[in-house]
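Q: A small favour: would you put together sequence and structure tokens for a protein?
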Amino acid sequence: MSQRRAGARALLRFILAEQRPLAVPSTSLQTSSSVARRLGCHRPKVSAHLPQSQALTPQCHGKSPESPRATPRDVVIDRYYIPKICLREVQMGDFIRYHYNGTFKDGKKFDSSYDRGATVAGVVGVGRLITGMDRGLQGMCVNERRHLIVPPHLGYGSIGVAGLIPPDATLYFDVVMLDIWNKNDKLQITTLSKPERCNRTVENSDFVRYHYNGTLLDGTPFDSSYSKDSTYDTYVGTGWLIKGMDQGLLGMCAGEKRSIIIPPFLAYGEKGYGTVIPPQASLVFSVLLVDFHNPKDGIFLEHLEVPESCKRRAVIGDFVRYHYNGTLMDGTLFDSSYSRNHTYNTYIGKGYIIPGMDQGLQGVCMGERRRVIIPPHLAYGENGTGNKIPGSAVLIFDVHIIDFHNPADPVEIETVYRPEGCNVTTRARDFIRYHYNCSLLDGTKLFSSHDYEKPQEVTLGANKVIEGLNTGLLNMCAGEKRVLIIPPHLGHGESGARGVPGSAVLRFEVELISMEEGVPEGYLFIWHGDPPASLYEQMDLNKDGEIPADEFSTFIKTQVAEGKGRLMPSSDPEKVIADMFRNQDRNQDGKITSEELKLKSDEDQEKIHEEL
């Protein structure tokens, strides 16, 4: 038993590293077909791509190859499987990794790398392998499979290996090539796809996020970020990666795909890594760069569309309403205001939103479209947020500014047309008729008086319209046209109104059609001079000691007709008079007595109701 172990160790030394170079005959390398013909054997035609299980063996008639005359003078090579793609063939001086089974002619196994659970690694053509193996491995492709017949003088000769290989033994090897590299190799980079737009590429000290599939040169997978459902995130050029990957990522664009073939001395070298990467293994990485940034990066702005007229730009403290699409650098959508059919509304520069967006919205114009690219340290950092924004993700926001304002903004008034000879203008309490078109600042139409049969009517200062519109209608002439920009705190506020979004800035186009002088607040009727001294007696037209509604109405209309007083302007004077009568008829019995009738000036102290 000990003799067999000693023999096995001796064989390994011969095959792997330590055998003395044997004499190499001058005869050229022969293929299996030529040797088979010389031996009187016939080999049917075999496809080079047949798998091992379907490989055909030569049918020999005559003397056995073990007989002295049948023993080949050179290595017999049967390339029974050749891969369709062969990027490289083994040459003298190449470092290789391969598996093999070694048997005698009768099929008895004398050695196997598979049994040891480890591939064989070595250099070809420098005398570290038996001569027959040195010759038989040359020209092989990765994943190629060969049957080698090594005659004794190219194997272990007349001595053999004690207890393992007898003298003058012909050796049969079944070999599969797994890896080929050379100390002069460099990184092999193949660009598989690249985005049309590439404003920036990876440099040393950048932080990258990428997906990868890692395989050995023979296609055996050893790792994949996809299986972990997470990108691999790291700095480039700072020693956190193997040297080959550090170099292979340089110059990549976000969204680019590369194949990176790394020789062992730029990967895990002689030690390998764990049980998945053997020693001296070339590595193949298929890489998709998801995004990258530098810790020194600020935000990056792209002005996609800027209105020709930009009278004002947003500053810190402004309240902005905008739509946006938020994506990762690979185009993955993580959020959109459009999907909610509602703008995002916020103050800028006050810390209510991520710092990068706080900066990116400053300086925008009404209606501008802008792209804001935000590095993670100005967004959600290393932890990300939710299940849609991963840690260390660069964010891209495509923003459309709907409007913005400042809480201190007044109504903005632009006079479009003002008639000549404009001497009389509107004041508080005046009754006016006007036309208007109301829209949002992005042009969305909300309301228009032209959709109705007549102009809008209102008493200014009577709290019947929003404060900003009331202000914008003051000091107008009949026929004048204005454009009013009304901030939400003078419009419909944060809550909005039916058809009006919350915190919306409104744009009104107004035209004053007519105006009537009004009466002071709290009055329905005012006298142009002093009221009659015996008001009740004059109002009691039939002198019966009481004033019903018809007498009251007749008396008021007469005063207006004679120019002695005027009613509060209204589209319905009868209603105003009826309101006056109801206020004076205190017990609501349908008539006014002398005790009930009072002037407004007499009632001011009582603060009971609005009247004469």
About this structure: The chain has a mean pLDDT of 86. The first strand starts at residue 30 and ends at 31. The radius of gyration is 48 Å.
